[in-house]
Amino acid sequence: MTTLAEPLKKVLGDKTAKALDKHLDLRTVGDLVYHFPRRYDERGEHTDIRSLSVGEDVTVLGQVRRATTRPMRQRSGRLLEVLVEDGTGGLLTLTFFNQAWRERDLRPGRWGLFAGKVTEFRGKRQLNGPDYVLLGDEGEASEEIEEFAGALIPVYPAAGAVPTWTIARCVRVALDTLAPVDDPLPATVRAGRGLLPLDTALREIHRPGSREDLHKARRRLKWDEAFAVQLTLVRRKVRATALPARPRPATAQGVLSTFDTRLPYELTEGQRRVGAEIATDLATTHPMHRLLQGEVGSGKTVCALRAMLQVVDSGGQAALLAPTEVLAAQHHRSISALLGPLGRAGELDGDPAGTQVALVTGSLGAAARRAAAAEVASGAAGIVIGTHALLYENVEFNDLGLVVVDEQHRFGVEQRDALRAKADQPPHTLVMTATPIPRTVAMTVYGDLEISILDQLPGGRSPIASHVVPAADKPAFLDRAWRRLREEVDAGHQAYVVCPRIGDGSASDADEPPPDDDGTARRPPLAVTEVAPLLAEGPLHGLRIGVLHGRLPADEKDAVMRSFAAGDLDVLVATTVVEVGVDVPNATVMIVMDADRFGVSQLHQLRGRVGRGSAAGLCLLVTEAVEGSAARERLDAVASTTDGFKLAELDLEQRREGDVLGATQSGRRSHLRLLSLLKDEKLIGEARQEAIDLVSADPELTAHPLLAQSIALLVDEERAEYLEKG
Q1: 238 and 289 Cβ atoms separated by less than 8 Å
Q2: Does the first or last residue of the chain, that is N or C, have fewer Cβ atoms within 10 Å of its Cβ?
Q3: Structural contact between residues 351 and 345, judged by C-beta atoms closer than 8 angstroms
Q4: R_g of the chain computed on alpha carbons
Q5: How far apart are CA 121 and CA 35, in angstroms?
Q6: Distance CA 267, CA 611 (A)
Q7: Is the separation of the CB atoms in 601 and 447 below 8 Å?
Q8: Which residues contact 443 (CB under 8 A, 6 or more apart)?
Q9: Model confidence pLDDT, tens digit, residues 120-143
Q10: What is the C-alpha separation between 65 and 85, in angstroms, rounded?
């Protein structure tokens, strides 16, 4: 008998084990047993051949309708064509060159699994030279097809060299030799939640006797994934609350109260509520860990500034970490403008009761960098705004009390942790994001944070209308888009034109563009440096056009943004460097070129740059994606709603959900194999409650050593660290 830790070569032999390792990263019996089927087919059930996409690698369950052999027209030899149907009228042609002998196997009426890449010839979908395994005729009991004898046929995530039926055979061998698997889940939890034993679940998910058995097995294994993540987060939260932090209580008379009295507008109810939550957290003896999420333009910056001023009033400093120099400079300008004299203490026109606001970026000259470092080290700068340059060793804080991280997802874990390490005691932390986060993602990824949501827009903000411009189908619509932009400029407003690429042969420009939905090659994405001159000579001739992208020198980027903000430019042609934080209320129209090259949440962020003043905003999404394609449906969804939470769920549907566990950051495959952050909200909530109860009684899980080990398997050290530092 074997265990989950047994190397596969001892169970399957060296050759098979090497193939599984090389192509699927499977090395142990546990790796293989946890390589769950992608789906389950039933003989007689259709595969929906008509939905197959050209270029897609597929495994199709079908029945041979007919097989014919004929001479080839263009070259010598014979061609075997096999017509396969799926039970609903969907037909697929299998072609084999000079393999007429296969006609003896592929007789009409035989069922089989056929794997290959979908191509199209004269309007018909086909697989050229596919791998296949035939399902036994009634009465046959060959060991080769034993794994397919049940009603449900598992179809595994496979590779060209290791098809699904090979994996199924390997799983059968592994399960037949596997000793009963110990169950790490406390018996009380298993009984209370009506969950299968782990050993039963692992066997049933590969060889289910019925759909009901499969459902129970999947539910148990989903539970394990949710429980492992929630235990990791809850334990982190408990440890964080045990750390000491210097309380930063609000004061009756200070910079914050003066700032509030001088605000030229009323705070929204949401801003007041969030402000009270943050103020309470800052006053505690344990570090605040709070996520502030709100739509673009909901007023997060003011909430963060009020928190920073509360810390300044207590004698401490606050650091705001921004992902780009453009955004850092924008924050510096907007916060300095909001504070007025309160942000210029020590200057001739400054308020002596205020503080100083320092900007620290990598592009500062030596003298400016020394001056900023001195202000930070002395404590004269109560508010410090910067990019990753804040992490450099020569930036020392006098008393860092609060770290505000803007657009957290753009920073690596190590960068955020390095900034927090600059404080004598763990500082309070406020994470801000304008990307709406579905509840289950917040519960799964940010489950260790308290969450505040700003769901109101300040008064005076205008609605944003969004429309898809099908440039390929209706080029006249694109012409109309440029005329519409000129109309806005003629009315005294400004515009953005956003492109997905910089141009001029940057490293990213050399990447091979992914294929379109139909498998055909794509042209390179449109580039700022190519589009700007075409617009200047063509539809936008005579307008004042500026260019902004990440490869410009920092002083040039800042100069362009200042010119645009001052109204000296009519149109800014830019990359997504304008995605977050750029605030120009006079900009009313945005045209996004090759909009299908952007993600849903990214498009939502981009269009938030317009409609920030009293005039209505307009966002035009230009695309060559054809109607009915996945890309076009995604753009139609963005155009149909400004509800960021609906769009965030759509975005999540289209990404690998496991990326939230740091798989993207680590470059490794996701360990959320079954759990759906969209569909399993109730189960995740139940797992979280059980995790809270268990950790409250046994914080280190000393009474549950098997459970602690299972967490290490499902949330490995790298991902645990990602969650720990998050």
Answers
A1: no
A2: N
A3: yes
A4: 30
A5: 35
A6: 19
A7: no
A8: 684, 685, 688
A9: 877 788 888 888 888 765 434 344
A10: 6
CA distance 322 to 302: 15
Task: Provide the b/e sequence for 655-673 (b: ≥16 CB within 10 Å).
Answer: eebbebbbbeeeeeebbbb
Collapsing DSSP states into helix, strand and coil, what is residue 77? Answer: coil
- Token pair of 291 as six digits: 């996520």
The count of residues in the chain is 726
Neighbours of 544 (CB within 10 A): 16
Amino acid at 476: A
Model confidence pTM above 0.85: no
**Chain segment 459-512, per-residue pLDDT in tens:** 666 678 999 999 988 889 999 999 999 999 999 999 999 999 998 655 444 333
Q: Which residue has the tokens 């169950």?
A: 183
CB 159 within 8 A of CB 23: yes
Q: Which domains does the chain have, with CATH numbers?
A: 8-194 (2.40.50.140), 255-454 (3.40.50.300), 464-508+522-641 (3.40.50.300)
Cβ proximity of 631 and 625 under 8 Å: yes
- Torsions phi, psi for 394 (to 5 deg): -80, 5
Bridge partners (DSSP) listed for residue 28: 7
Signed CA dihedral, 86, 91, 92, 94: sign only? positive
The greatest distance separating any two alpha carbons of the chain, rounded to the nearest whole angstrom, comes to 97
The position carrying tokens 């020394």 is 370
- Per residue in 676-691, pLDDT (tens digit) is 777 888 898 899 999 9
For residues 560 and 546, is the Cβ–Cβ distance under 8 A? yes
Burial zone of 570 (CB within 10 Å; 0-12 exposed, 13-18 middle, 19+ buried): buried
